[in-house]
Write a structure and sequence with these properties.
Rhopdopsin 7-helix transmembrane proteins, mainly alpha, olfactory receptor activity, GPCR_Rhodpsn, Olfact_rcpt, GPCR_Rhodpsn_7TM
Amino acid sequence: MFLANGTRSVTEFILLGFPVTQGQNVALFLLILILYILSLGGNVLIIVVVRTDHKLQTPMYFFLSNLSFLEIWYTTAVVPKMLANLLSTRTTICFYCCLAQLFFHFLFGLTEIFILTVMSFDRYLAICQPLRYMTIMTTQVCLHLALGTWVGGFLSIFTHIILVLQLPFCASNVINHYYCDIGPVLKVACGDTQLIEFLGFIIAVVVIFSSFVFTVVSYILIIATILRIPSSKGRQKAFSTCASHLIVVSILYGALFFMYMRPAPTQSSFGLNKAVSLLNTVLTPTLNPFIYTIRNNEVKEALRKALSGKGLRFPNISGIVCFRKQCSLMQT
């Protein structure tokens, strides 16, 4: 980061953004702004509804509200700066702002992977171990699992960011992306980045691939259990509790495998990376609240109450994670 005389050669980076004209920039700005507002509104609404409706005080909805909280900050780490750059002729970001954006983007992203994995485990217990579910998924266990996702996300990226901080940036300061992603940032570093790239691959394998395998195994067991349910109504009800999560997981892992589980991208492939990462940072967080509500009758009923003003009685903080209500799935 510093030259021999103690002066840092790069104080800011230039984000190239999207190769579009000024008129297209305005249209793209409006589209992303609308999606961002929908994302914030939808995720905030889920958090409020889960916290205010006593019927949703279960582990499944506790983790869903945690996911919505993560989605809010995951998009906020990237989208506001991207929107500002779309309307500006000076698309720069300060050196430490860039590294902070890189850190928070991966912190929230990795934590989201962990929370989705925990949600898979929760659904496995609810469907495959219904008699033991409430004794295993206690309030304390749920809180520890939620805290563990944050700790896991932080530990996964902390060493990586420290190593990036030690790199010299003394030549080009042009980042071929609309935010500070790890690949484009390493491309403009002067020093040897092989160790960081290797650690990044290890993190991708350990976190992304292992979480993916755990989720797939969980859903294989879940589907096998659902198929053994004698009534078609019971099978439909059981599958409906998992379908939304399965859709979200499929979209997320598809994008992650493309961006981080393949050989290091070349400059020519960064354009495709931008499109896929736009899906991951803007579109998916916007769709998630709709995916989780459209197929979920309990959330839809809670939303109707909230919008009509009947469900806006805020409980004590201690009641937010009070999971005394048996999962409706176990009544099937």
